[in-house]
Amino acid sequence: MKTKPVKKTVMYICLIGLAVISFFPFYVMIINATRSTGDILSGFSLIPGKNITDNFNEMQSRVDVLKSFRNSLLVALSSTALTCYFSAMTAYGLTAYDFKLKNTAFTAILVIMMIPPQLSIIGFFKFMKGMNLLNSFIPLILPSVASATTVFFIKQYAEAALSRSIIESARIDGAGEFKIFNRMALPILAPAIFTMGINSFVASWNNYLVPLILLSDTKKFTLPLVIRIFNADTQDPSVGAMYLCIAISIVPVMIVFFVFSRYIIDGIGAGGEKE
Questions:
Q1: Domain segments of the chain: what residues?
Q2: Which of 9, 78, 168, 185 is the S-S candidate for 141 at Cβ 3.0 to 4.6 Å?
Q3: Angle, alpha carbons 108-111-114 (nearest 5°)
């Protein structure tokens, strides 16, 4: 009987150790964001410095990081909202309706998932240039409407969690299709939507290649492009300012994960139960 408490204690110690190891690099990054370049290059330290104000001023003097932060937030939130809503609508249609070429449409989604997005980047650039949409946030946001991976994931969840009998009952009661989707389907699909929403937000927030190709106006730069400027400046490096910029870029991702991760955990069991 005494072995169970011992095993549980060992398990908790291991989990705490893994958590410390996982968060240690973030702690070092935050510490270095408060130290000067000379202090960072002179050696490792776990004690915060006193140069965070100087690092912030140095960071803002090179590029407007706060402006880039707002740009990244606008793009990430907009693309996440479009991805979640329209992907859920597509997945709902593939689950709740029977129509010709339904399997063909789903197969096409699977094929699109297998195509690396880098293959279409040149054609996408020429298309956006022809439409005079370079140095615009529209090409970074609008393509999020069609996310094959998100559609696939939500559809798999919908097949397990969404009952057709509920949909038919709502239709008998006179509810319209959009009302059924918005009032009934979306709450049921919420765990899958939040899961893919986190992935979509992180992917959009960290997107480097597409903004690099489409944006040349520094006022429209997102945070990954700003971090590149610090990394490319080898003649006058400011390591402390670079660490501060990286720390600022990671904060929203951590907030999104900690706020919405419980929805992922709640949805694991629900998605596994099929009627």
A1: 63-272
A2: 78
A3: 155
